[in-house]
């Protein structure tokens, strides 16, 4: 028996289908512009199924943000497998961002999905805390590699990690505005040059 893509999609648990639909719609259209009806229709589930899996749209947004963070961590871990030195580890962070930018998006690359969502959420929203935690973790990862690279210079390692995190975020913002990952590749080259001078 041949199983079609649509049939295999219907066999996935409703929560997975809802998260996948939310990820597509939130990234392509924005959080505020995407209604529950749009998500349930795309997921092929009843509205009650959404509320059986998520307490509210805000809960679904947080789950989307958590899933996007985990997706990026997966890309980073895959890149880290090829890292042989702390320098390579720092550059693996940049490569993971470039890999995310190179993903196939319905309406093209629009920048960091986490920051895009955070920009739509009010101050104090729990979703903004998820995004902040992601950005802080990225900087911690860079700092960890730099502590290995500069074990006798912890202050320089910390300052350089902040510098590289700013470089990465600026590149991500510009890449999103320009709709491609070129700025991320250029930022990686700048980071490599800086690391070579330490």
Please name the defining characteristics of this protein.
198 residues; mainly alpha; 0% strand
Explain what the structure shows.
With 198 residues, the chain is mainly alpha-helical. The chain contains 10 helices and no strands. The protein has helices at residues 5-11, 14-29, 36-43, 47-53, 57-80, 86-101, 113-120, 126-149, 154-178, 182-196. The longest helix is centred in the C-terminal third of the chain and has 25 residues, at 154-178. The radius of gyration is 19 Å and the shape is elongated. Mean pLDDT is 93; it is low at 1-8.
Counting helices, strands and paired strands, the structural category is mainly alpha
Shape: elongated
- List the total number of helices: 10
* Radius of gyration from the alpha-carbon trace, in angstroms: 19 Å
């Amino acid at each position: 028996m041949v199983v079609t893509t649509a049939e295999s999609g219907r066999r996935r648990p409703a929560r997975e289908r809802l998260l996948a639909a939310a990820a597509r719609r939130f990234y392509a259209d924005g959080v505020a512009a995407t209604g529950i009806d749009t998500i349930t229709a795309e997921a092929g589930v009843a509205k009650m199924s959404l509320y059986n899996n998520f307490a509210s749209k805000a809960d679904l947004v947080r789950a989307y943000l958590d899933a996007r963070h985990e997706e990026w961590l997966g890309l980073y871990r895959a890149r880290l497998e090829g890292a042989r030195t702390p320098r390579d580890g720092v550059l693996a962070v940049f490569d993971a961002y470039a890999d995310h930018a190179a993903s196939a998006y319905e309406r093209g690359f629009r920048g960091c999905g986490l920051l895009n969502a955070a920009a739509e959420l009010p101050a104090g929203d729990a979703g903004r805390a998820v995004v902040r935690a992601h950005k802080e973790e990225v900087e911690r990862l860079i700092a960890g590699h730099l502590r290995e690279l500069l074990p006798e210079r912890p202050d320089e390692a910390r300052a350089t990690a902040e510098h590289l995190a700013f470089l990465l975020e600026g590149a991500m913002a510009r890449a999103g505005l320009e709709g491609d990952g070129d700025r991320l590749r250029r930022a990686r080259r700048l980071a490599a040059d800086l690391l070579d001078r330490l």
